Structures are given as C-alpha cells and as structure tokens.
Amino acid sequence: MDKESISRKASIAGICVNIVLCAIKLISGFMTNSIAILSDGFNNLTDIGNAVLIFIGYRLASKPADREHPYGHGRIEYMLSQGIATVIIIVGFSLFKSSVSRIITPKSVDFNLIAVIILALSLTAKRGLAMYYNTLYKRSGLIPLKAQTTDSLSDAASTAVIIIGYLLTPLTSPYLDAILGLILSAVIMYNGVRIFLEMTSILTGTTGDKNTFDEVERILSEYPDIRGVHDLRIHSYGPDILYGSADIDLDAGMTLSQAHDILDAMETDVAQKTGIKMTLHADPSADDQHLSELKQQLTAVLKRYDQEADFHDFHYNRKLNRYIVDIVIPFDHKADKKVISELIRNALTENGEQIEIEIRFDRS
Question: Taking the model in full, what pTM does it have?
C-alpha cells in the first residue's frame, strides 16, 4: 500500500469517526449541561480538520523537487504536524477558559445514562482510531499520523476522565465538572506543545535517528582502505529524504583516482543500504614521525584541559604553509576557545619555536 493510499484511508477514517463523535457529544453536552462533555465534542470537531490536513499535507509533501526546492517538499509533513499541534493547543486553551468561567459561575450537571453510554462508546472508538493510526504510521512513516496517534490517545484518556467526573459530580459538587475540565485542558495543551516543539526541533536541525547514524558509521568504517571516519552528519529534508556528509581519512600516498574510487564505492554502498545520499570528503593521513610526535603533544594538552576532548584532521597544508587541526569538544562541556588555542600553540613547537597552526573547533 503506497503512502497516498494510506493517508487517504487515515483521513477517511478520522473524518467519519470524529463526525459521529462530535455530533453525539455535543447533543449529550447540551442535554446534561456538562461543560466537559461539550468541550470534548468541540475537540472532535477540530480532529475532523486535522484528518483533512493529513491527506492534503501528504499531497503537498510528495511533490517532486523543483528549482526552488531542490531537496523536495518532505518537510511539509513536519510543518503539518505543527499545524495539528497548534489546533490542539487552541482547543485546550478554549476548554481552559470555559472551565474557569464555569468555576466562577457554577451550574448543576444533569445525570443521563445515555450520555454515559455514549461517552463509553466514544472512548472505545478513539482508542481504536489511535491503534489504526499507529498501525498506518508504522507501515508508512508518515509523521502527521504519529501526531494524530498521540492526539487520539489523549482524547481517549480525556473521555475516561470525563466519564468518571460525570458520574461523581452529582454525588459531590458542581465544581468537579469544571475542575476536570481544567485538568483536561492542561493535558490537551501539554500534548500540543510537546508535538509542536518536537517538530520545531526537527526543522531546526537535529542529529537525527541514532540507529540510522550508527548504521551509516558502521558501513563506512568497514572499508579496509580507510584510516578513520569523522564529521559524519545526516540532514533530513523529510521522513524519506536524507542527505549525509563525512570526512574519510585515507592514505596520503593514494592517487586522486584511487581515493575517488573508494569514496564513490562508499557513497553507493550507503545509498543502497540506507537510502541516504552521501557526499564524502577525503582527508590525507600520512605516516610521518614528526607529525606523530606533534599529535602526541596535542593529545597530552587536550587531556589536561578535558579528558573527553579530541582532535582529527591534523595535517600540514603546503598551500597555506601552516598546520591545521580540528579540535572536538562534547556539546555539554565548557570550551574556552581562546584558552585551548593558547595552550596548543604554547605546547606545539619546532626547533624551540611555536608552529604556525590554524585551530578549528567542532562539537560532538
């Protein structure tokens, strides 16, 4: 089953289920005068719009690359999930206001057995819809379906809370209905904010899935002709649109043609096994006694500053007439670049004089 068919099935299921739930909950809410039930019904109304957005969003995201968007339109899926999250937050805030108003001006809630049955059926339907969305998400990887799964589970939990409150309100206080509305609104807004921030993080740029990262690193590291892999990065332009880059340490004695053939084979291998389009850069690695001594000195300096600090791509650039090195400091560690640079320059010497070195900084 292709993704377009899956998104269409998910949309149809979401629209049909939520239309029915919205109608019966609004009727039940007006019959019982329950603000919690009415709010739950309006929540289903927004779910109808979200279901429509799933299908429209996939049609937009699946558009092929063009001149203005050479990496395709896959990130629209993330933006669509942000839109769904925004609707969830708005619904939660609306429920919050209604609940506060009900606390200020309390009204009695009328018990109705039919309303309880309707809510119980609604809970079951929402739970089933969440399972259906999750099954389709695992089959397709469509990000908006993940957001919809979370939303449906949240709706089911909210309905469970409403049922309990509805049964207890006549036995306790009219304020209970409004208090449960406040709790429900907080849960809804929390889920909306969480989804929105998660999608924002992806759009801003994250390290991506660790399993995918580790798999690519494993594939590259298995080649016997290389001496190391560093600066591996994977960029997502959509759930199925991944590009990557890395620096590969190769024997400095290799010809340009030999290095090209190795990197070309590695790029093809990664693409076939993971679908990621890689761009690899060759870093020459020479067996030089003097350079080895400098590396030992550099290692000692870095370990005194930070035990987890490291470096790579330490070489002499004849064109620039100076040494170049990349210093790697963990993201969660303090890094005073001026101090580190001064320590390195003071420690690395040739014939008693400081060497000319360009120091670059990376985070890992």
Answer: 0.64
